[in-house]
Amino acid sequence: MMRGSSPDQSKSGNEVVMDALSLLHERVSIANLVEPGPTPEQMDALFKAALRAPDHGALRPWRFLVIEGEARQKLGKLFRQVGQQLNPDAPEAFLEKCEKMPLRAPCLVAVVVRYQEHPKVPQQEQLLSAGAAAQNILLAAYAQGLGAIWRTGWVCDEPLLGESMGLAANERLVGFLYIGSRGPITPPLRPLATSDFVSNWS
Ligand SMILES: Cc1cc2nc3c(=O)[nH]c(=O)nc-3n(C[C@H](O)[C@H](O)[C@H](O)COP(=O)(O)O)c2cc1C
């Protein structure tokens, strides 16, 4: 395995291309995403990582919707409809922006939390587990040389969007993971000091 700041692009498929700590220390969100999207093998590796999310009670309180190709246009129309229903006076420029949002990457993964009744696992823990699954997807994307960013915007909280996308009454959108090849604009790592966030408790 290679140690370094970027995955070895010469390797392909779902082979691990960064060592684990480099990946955890260096992953950044990448908004500038271009074609091609992930291969089927890369997608499989993303979802295998998602299923390793910590999960109290083994409830598997998540599922994932892949939105690629023309489905992105369809989702854009839904974003537009929801935007219009929430704000009937919205200017056309805003509605167009809504419609184009899913076109910002070749592939989107909608992360859905599936809330279940459980005496020991409250909804908050299930939501955290879905968030961990989302983060595992981001990490697996970065490890494979892809770029990815988690976006929610105003749309995720809108029950109207969830209904239109076929979510059940116990399900909510946790976010859309935009995934693709890295474009030319890669953001720098923003350095943070662990000492600003960590202290001993006694
Ligand atoms: C739950 C959640 C929702 C987010 N929603 C958005 C969003 O709608 N738009 C956006 O630009 N960034 C959003 N972000 C932030 C980006 O995903 C990303 O974390 C941020 O740009 C910082 O980049 P970094 O991950 O490289 O530190 C969201 C992050 C989280 C955890």
DSSP summary, beta strand count: 5
Radius of gyration: 18 Å
Portion in strands = 15-25%
The average pLDDT value, as a whole number, equals 92
Tell me the number of helical segments per DSSP (H or I, 4 or more residues long): 6
Order of helices and strands: HEHEHHEHEHE
Based on CA inertia axes, which overall geometry fits? Answer: globular
As a percent range, the share of helical residues equals 25-40%
Could you give the distance between the termini? 39 Å
Class derived from helix and strand content = alpha+beta
Low-confidence stretches: 1-5, 9-14
Taking the sheet with the most strands, its summary is:
5 strands, antiparallel
Q: Which distinct ligands sit in these coordinates?
A: flavin mononucleotide
